[in-house]
């Protein structure tokens, strides 16, 4: 086993390479320094004096998520290809690291995107949205079939572009590909949502449990929880808007400890809650399409992460699960005692506020959707 010692004033790490990985192990900071006028002992040669010893490590400043964030900061590991042996800390937000200029750019980009979306797609006078919906609606008089076709078109574009992300980013760059990805996905997603809102009470009524005591409360709580399962990458708003360079992250803390695919879990909960409340064939068709799309996303997401991160993803995969709580119940994921602190962060607070705001804004959302006549 080859090893090298890196000396520093406060503490030291010895990098040990075995089984294809390099492990950083803390060693005592107090070393046997020689007494005055005594012969200098043969200490290991510091690794920073030997460039070849660090070249294969290509160490990066990411940390392994162990049983707690605090412990993870003390045990840093890296694989030979430069990726962390484990996942990243999700929903981390340091206000001190934020730049005012970045958020000014974000606000400007957001305003520009909304203006372009309205002009190119939403506005019936200038946009293509109405023509697109009319073309899809012409396929069938069944709202269920139209709903499924809209979801299929969105899924094909969204997941298709995600699958070609690596090749696309190499061709035109990370930021340009993110702009292209958002420019195609946003109009299609908006169209599908508006069509669902406008036709959610059409179709065949399968059941009606609105008057059953406790159902409204169950549906409300389920919907609220579903939004907490948002994929952690959506917390990186500056990356979403391409202000910061977009990255494919390997998350492991927070909601990821419960399920490796929180967006899928949240979508299933959302669909089942709405299907229970509305109980008709249109919502059933929408739920079938959305859940099917996200189940494909589970396979496709794992495939892409495995391709990008290799053995590091296999480590995260072994400690997490697709089915919520499965890894915890099987003992593969050990929750730290202060696990709740991983949710006491600004991104989760923001999601909570926005979720409550969306609930109270339902009348405005319905009115805006009806005004489009999609």
Q: Could you describe the 3D structure shown?
A:
InterPro entries: NnrU_dom (IPR009915). Keywords: Isomerase, Membrane, Transmembrane, Transmembrane helix. The protein is mainly alpha-helical and 374 residues long. The chain has 2 domains: 3-57, no CATH class; 100-372, no CATH class. The protein contains 15 helices and 4 strands. A hairpin with a 2-residue loop joins β2 (12-18) and β3 (21-27). α5 runs parallel beside α11 (281-309) and α6 (165-172) crosses α7. The chain is globular. The termini are far apart.
Give the N-terminus to C-terminus distance in angstroms.
Answer: 67 Å
Amount of beta strand: 5-15%
Reading the helices and strands in chain order gives EEEHHEHHHHHHHHHHHHH
Percent helix range? 40-55%
Number of helices: 15
Instruction: Label the overall shape.
Output: globular
Number of domains: 2
- Read across the widest sheet, the strand sequence of neighbours is 1-2-3-4
User: Based on DSSP secondary structure assignment, what is the total number of beta strands?
Assistant: 4
Low-confidence stretches: 1-85
Radius of gyration: 25 Å
Keywords for this entry:
4-stranded antiparallel beta sheet, 9,15,9'-tri-cis-zeta-carotene isomerase activity, 374 residues, NnrU_dom, mainly alpha, single chain
What's the structural blueprint in terms of helices and strands?
Blueprint lengths: L2 E4 L5 E7 L2 E7 L23 H4 L14 H6 L2 E2 L21 H23 L6 H9 L5 H21 L1 H8 L1 H26 L15 H14 L8 H4 L21 H17 L2 H29 L1 H9 L6 H4 L16 H15 L1 H11 L2
Antiparallel strand pairs: 1-2, 2-3, 3-4
Helix pairs in contact: 5-7, 5-11, 6-7, 7-15, 8-10, 10-11, 11-12
